[in-house]
Amino acid sequence: MNNIFFSLGANIASKMIILLVNIVSFRLLLPEDYGVISLLLAMTATIGAVAGMGASVAVNSVVAREGFSSLTSLFVKYNYFFAFLFSIILAGFIYIFYLNDINKIPSWQIFAFILIFSLTSSLNSISEAILIGLHDYKRLFINNFASFLIFLPISFYLILEFKITGVLINLLAYRFFLLLINFYSVNKTKLLKVRSNNKDEKREIFKRFKELSLPVILSGLLVAPVIGLAFKIVTMQDYGLKQLAYFNIIYQVYLVAIFIPNALNGYFISRFSSKGGSGQKDFLKIAKNNFFFALVISFCLFVFQKVFFFIVDDHSSALINNYYIMLVTIVLFSLNAVFSSFWPSVGKAWFGFYMNIVWAIVLLLVTFIFSKYQISQPLSWAFLIAYLVLTIVQALNYKVVTHAK
Asked: Shortest CA distance to 61 belongs to which of 375, 310, 280, 296?
């Protein structure tokens, strides 16, 4: 139980700064102006979220299964390198297609921000995955919570003093500090110092990378551009920036809320993949527990909704409707989080990638149709429907897999 608490606390602490940044920005700026900047902030939060769903999934699984070994060490190093490489590609793609026309900030600053944020997020996600795979949940919690406490006053100062520039500096400094402290903890384990010249191990690493890392890295690369395109579709409509502004502040709450089931997701991967573990046999029990956690989160957000609306100082119908729709989405996401842990552990990581393609198609179709016909809250409905479809498809395929055994 302590391990679950530390895993949850570590993930929540690492995401709260981004939520606070958005709340302060929402209160300081007009909806139209915040809508322009929220495109950048939303993509920033999305990159931070999907970084943990990329190579870190495979790293967590292999570290939990193999422990301290030359094979594990080599596999981790490969994933650090490819996370670095794919982060550069992702940053360039997002800038070129989604963020090159933000007239509030110089282009070079936007690209530099997205590049550095992508790199620090992805590399830190692998460091966190190593600590989770080694079951060092307490160390991860201490690192992330200490970072949160340190940057809490710094965040308020930078935003109030330097406005938009302060937002960018704060997020970059926070992510860099988080990477530094977690990588230091990984380095202390001596795992990265284990070496091997065995050619068979190198061939095994390539095989595992192709089977585990590649599909989940591609999944991570898919999510951010798809969400970015959905945002773009909305902003192209009349009053699109205002719609995005009202959605984005709720989206930030959603991203923090889902990191509770997402944190459990990392814990479950470790459980599923551990030698001698019974994680796969307990799948239904774990899914029910995760579903229960998500229900509790959504219920608490529903009960304390007045506190949130008081903090953001807005009670518009658009904000309230987005809030209610995303409460349901949190529950559906929690179920998919367990499935995304399960597929890599049974050698079906590529199936998880195909499920992400299904999610992307549904999300974009719903966003386009709802925006075109001016149906209120198109993005919230798109997320809800996409995860509902994904839940049904994955549940059916899980039955097929379990019956085949």
From this structure: 280
Selection from 32, 39, 25 nearest residue 164 by Cα:
25
Sign of the CA dihedral 111, 116, 122, 123? Answer: positive
Residue 167 has pLDDT above 60, yes or no: yes
Could you give the residue ranges of the DSSP H alpha helices within 238-348? 240-273, 283-303, 305-312, 317-345
Q: Buried b vs exposed e over 367-399: b needs ≥16 C-beta within 10 Å?
A: bbebbeeeeebbbbbbbbbbbbbbbebbeebbe
How many CB atoms within 10 Å of residue 112? 15
Give the span between the Cα atoms of 86 and 66, in whole angstroms.
25
In the numeric block, the tokens 């001596």 are attached to 190
| Alpha carbon distance 85, 218 (integer Å) | 12
- Report how far residue 7's alpha carbon sits from residue 266's, in angstroms, rounded to the nearest whole number: 8
Could you tell me the pLDDT band of residue 98, with boundaries at 50, 70 and 90? Answer: low
Taking the C-alpha atoms of residue 357 and residue 285, their distance in angstroms, rounded to an integer, is: 27
d(CA 161, CA 166): 7
Angstrom distance (rounded) from CA 268 to CA 286: 8
Q: How far from chain centre, in Å, is Cα 205?
A: 26
- The Cα–Cα gap between 61 and 134 comes to 10
Phi, psi at 373, each rounded to 5°: -95, 15
Cα–Cα distance measured from residue 405 to residue 403, given in angstroms and rounded to the nearest whole number: 5
Please enumerate in sequence order all residues whose Cβ is within 8 A of that of 135, keeping only pairs 6 or more positions apart, or say none.
Answer: 3, 64, 270
Do the beta carbons of residue 69 and residue 133 sit within 8 Å? no
Q: DSSP of 131-191, one letter per residue? A: HHHTT-HHHHHHHHHHHHHHHHHHHHHHHHHHHHHHHHHHHHHHHHHHHHHHHHHHHHTTG
- Cα 252 versus chain centre, distance: 11
pLDDT on residue 249: 84
pLDDT of residue 287: 74
**Mean pLDDT in the chain?**
80
Q: Give the integer Cα–Cα distance in Å for 342 and 97.
A: 33
* pTM for the whole structure: 0.73
**Residue-range domain boundaries for the chain:** 2-404
Query: Which residue, chain included where needed, has tokens 């065995």?
Result: 198
CA-CA distance, 254 to 248, in Å (whole number)? 9
